[in-house]
Amino acid sequence: MKEKSDIRGFVDLQVNGYKGIDFSSPDLTEEAFVFACRELEKKGTVAFLPTIISSAPEIYQKNLRIISRIMRREEFAQMLPGIHLEGPFISAENGYKGVHPFQQIRRPDLEILKQLIKWSDHQIRMLTIAAELDGADKICKYAVSKNIIVSLGHQDANEKQINRLAEKGASSLTHLGNGIPHLINRHINPIWAGLGNEKLTAMIVADGFHLPVSLIQTILKVKGAKQTIMVSDLSPLGGLKPGNYKIWGADVVLSQKGFLYDPQTGYLAASSLSLLDCVNWLLSKEILRFKDIYRMAFQNPAEFIGLDLKSFKKSKKFRLRDNQILIDS
């Protein structure tokens, strides 16, 4: 039985690539990036922030220019509202750095940020940094002055450090509960500190692998659906067949169930699932009403980066059936 719905698609603030197209690859081309955008649209993603992880200067220069050029095309003007830089000013420690290449991680440097902004043609919309790094407060203050949203992640920060960055203008937490080692201090860690700061919106990856249901419930009880944003953290390997792959210098495995991980460390290598898949997984857990889950995947992220909700029209291709969102081809 079909049910009426007011679904207009999804807004994803963290997409690293899709169907073999890596936004941080030295081989990225305009044609490849356009292909990934169109494939994402088929999965219901109506707007997203293409995300580049910690990279070499020549990759930043090339790929930021490619993405900013495509953003100027009429076809993608609404779909691409900005770029998310996840790094390079993050923790270089194992566990905290995730699968970011160690050699490309940098200490906070205002001149590097200014160059990145220039290469992007001033299209950077979000910047993920680690709060504990010396100079992080200066980077944060400058970025916010340039209308860049500062998010805290891949960090070994304590409560004082996170609160200081929030006072400087940081406003969100990148994939809260992830980008962190398996073993941490039980009380002094970025998860508790981030949850405890009322100014910070929590971005979460609800794909069935990144967070257990109990932690998602805890985050929602603290932040509420109004201050929580779902992101996919979609990997370039998303949409590909299960198997062994190499990405960002690491050998990874994509399992039959969609679990994407580094077998040497056990750490996740982003997600293989789109935001549509994440929404449907969370719907299947029956811990939140549909309208709250959809709010976290559309209204919240759109408003967070300043998009006009009215500009996204209803589409008959989306339908809600048996508590799952389906897309007609």
How would you describe what is shown here?
This protein is an alpha/beta fold and 329 residues long. It has one domain: TIM Barrel (Alpha-Beta Barrel). It has ten helices and 16 strands. It has an eight-stranded parallel beta sheet with strand order 2-5-6-7-8-9-10-11. A three-stranded antiparallel beta sheet has the order 1-15-16. Strand 15 and strand 16 form a beta hairpin. Helix 5 packs across helix 6 and helix 8 runs antiparallel to helix 9. The protein is globular, with a radius of gyration of 18 Å. The relative contact order is 0.16. The mean pLDDT is 96.
Q: Largest sheet, if any?
A: 8 strands, parallel
Strand content: 15-25%
Unreliable segments of 5+ consecutive residues:
none
Radius of gyration: 18 Å
Number of domains: 1
Query: How helix-rich are the residues, as a percent range?
Result: 25-40%
Number of strands: 16
Mean pLDDT: 96
The general outline is: globular
From the 3D coordinates, which CATH architecture would you assign?
Alpha-Beta Barrel
SSE layout:
Layout: E1 2-3, E2 10-15, E3 17-18, E4 21-22, H1 30-42, E5 45-53, H2 57-71, E6 83-86, H3 110-119, E7 124-129, H4 136-145, E8 149-152, H5 159-167, E9 172-173, H6 190-196, E10 201-204, H7 213-223, E11 228-230, E12 243-247, E13 250-254, E14 260-261, H8 275-285, H9 290-297, H10 299-304, E15 318-321, E16 324-327
Parallel strand pairs: 2-5, 5-6, 6-7, 7-8, 8-9, 9-10, 10-11
Antiparallel strand pairs: 1-15, 3-4, 12-13, 13-14, 15-16
Helix pairs in contact: 5-6, 8-9
